[in-house]
Design a protein that fits this description.
By secondary structure, the chain is mostly helical. It has one domain (4-87). The chain is built from 3 helices and no strands.
Length: 88
């Protein structure tokens, strides 16, 4: 029987990453945060990065691909935030 105590640390990190992305998506859907804000892109990028850490230990190509793109897209969002802020 598996328990949280016997779960590998990298699975816990990956699960935290999933929770961060889902929570952020929930906040967008209920109107609590704006996708134009820095927080949205940063939380998504960190969440995807944590999932990538877990995938390093338990590789799955399709998951690495989607999370890699998720990180890149999040970095684009961070860059756009700072570009808009500098333009003002």
């Amino acid at each position: 029987m598996s328990t949280i105590l016997s779960t590998p640390w990298y699975d816990l990190l990956g699960t935290l990453g999933v929770a961060m992305i889902l929570f952020c998506y929930l906040l967008i859907q209920i109107g609590r945060i704006d996708s134009e804000k820095l927080t949205f892109s940063v939380v998504n990028g960190i969440g995807a990065s944590l999932i990538l850490v877990s995938l390093y230990y338990e590789f799955n190509f399709a998951s690495v691909l989607i999370e890699g793109f998720w990180v890149v897209i999040s970095l684009i969002g961070v860059g756009r935030y700072f570009y808009r802020r500098r333009s003002k």
